[in-house]
């Protein structure tokens, strides 16, 4: 058993097993049992549910999920942790370990259609992973993620506010985002410099119809290219990359019912979808 509730004993365990922590993998263990309990009660998968856990570390959450009878895939990159996970869990029939960088290892498994995806995500790659799921249209399941508080704020930010970004728009286009609770650095070993937040994301019941995903993602990036510029000026370089001129952008904005002088960052997810669909229609 890994001594997950005591930072001191965990440090001894890591040393005894020759495991060193790697900053690039964002390795901060959740050593607070109360916080783990709160997350587990949010997860509570039904028996037989396919669950994916991203970055299990030494398995502090995995053991409890396996007890529920869920079918658990864990995605871990650290070879030292993988060795411990194999020792602890490989005898369990409902456990499967996927080794390597989750950004590379998840796409071949997309047909598993997990009902639940969760994880205390590595800080440096949390947003990239969430964006990857969304951009690759992998949104059929419920997600519960621990992320840096600032990343959570971006996921849920309202149009026109300082945290609103193309990442906010991406999340809110496809998912309902709920910020569930904050977690202090003291809940982790080693202590991170930032606060964390547990966020729940559910596929929106009203999934948007997007006529051309390439155009939609291109527009999302263009909207925030320069925050000081107007919507029209931010769209010009994107339009030029498609061989379209300023008159075309004027017509596009007119068709979409958007004033050219507003800022891109004031558009809601619904506005962005409608703009992208108008662009797709005009390009055809
Ligand atoms: N789940 C454990 C916990 O809560 O104590 C560890 C969480 S720690 C914040 C992040 C975990 O993700 C580490 O185990 C780290 O090795 C793993 N990880 C980091 N980058 C990864 C990647 N690209 N693919 C898979 N796992 C990764």
Give a description of the structure:
The chain is an alpha/beta fold. It folds into two domains: 7-203, Rossmann fold (3-Layer(aba) Sandwich); 213-283, Helicase, Ruva Protein, domain 3. Helices cover 41% and strands 17% of the residues. The protein is built from twelve helices and nine strands. The chain has helices at 7-16, 33-43, 62-67, 79-89, 102-105, 126-135, 149-156, 166-174, 213-223, 231-241, 246-256, 269-283, and strands spanning 29-30, 50-54, 71-76, 95-99, 116-120, 142-148, 175-183, 188-189, 196-203. It has a seven-stranded mixed β-sheet. Helix 8 (166-174) runs antiparallel to helix 9 (213-223), helix 8 crosses helix 12 (269-283) and helix 9 (213-223) crosses helix 12. The longest helix is centred in the C-terminal third of the chain and has 15 residues, at 269-283. The chain is elongated and about 65 Å long. The relative contact order is 0.11. S-adenosylmethionine (SAM) is lined by residues 25-30, 55-57, 60-61, 75-78, 81, 101-103, 120, 122, 125.
